[in-house]
Amino acid sequence: MLTAVVKLRLREDSSDSLPAIAEATLDLNGVAIRAHASADTMIEAIDRLEDRLGRRLRRHRKRLQDRRHRPEPEPAASHPGFASIPPDEREVVRHKSLAMHPMTVEEAADEMDLLDHGFYLYLDTDHDIDRVVFHNGDGAIHVVPAVDGEVLPGDTRPPIHPTPLVLNHLPLLEAEVLLDEGDEPFVFFAEPDSGRGQVLYRRFDGHYGLISPAI
User: Fold this and answer.
1) pLDDT in tens, 172-210
2) Which residues are paired to 170 by β-bridges?
3) Domain end residue (candidates: 39, 69, 99)
4) How many structural domains does the chain have?
5) Domain carrying residue 138
6) 3 CB contacts (<8 Å, ≥6 apart)?
């Protein structure tokens, strides 16, 4: 069974960047494939939507193929979780600098899902700030920091909730302390010199990874 719902709309305020919005949801035998795109014109938004849907459909097909050829897991198998390493032995072993292109929160959520990541650092085109979208296990998508008066659209995906956060300007060592003391998988903080948002996250090997914007 295949059904599709496509929504096209223009932001009411013509001064907004990327005013053309295109959203689509495909139902493939009960599996929802969603995509969202925005652009300066509706034709560009539709082209981007087509590209995103194509990539998601190819990824879904690959998952089905991998599942057919994957051996059955052992009954006692479980998620390994994070390796246990004393805090004073943990290191930042992976540092990625991203050339972040401005995008909307909906597009950032799409990219996060497309990459199968639990969080995604991006530059918000509507507010010109660094933000993070993330899953936290409640079935919804969250975005930090929250913006006063912001209305988050998009009823073709799990809802996106703003999460209050004071974006602290911290040196990396203090961010490591916060990550060690809490149960969260990452810490979103601002680098003191540049003021740009960064994400320090837990790796499964027990060490840290750091994601920061390319400046």
Assistant:
1) 989 988 888 877 889 999 988 888 999 999 887 778 899
2) none
3) 69
4) 2
5) 89-213
6) 26, 27
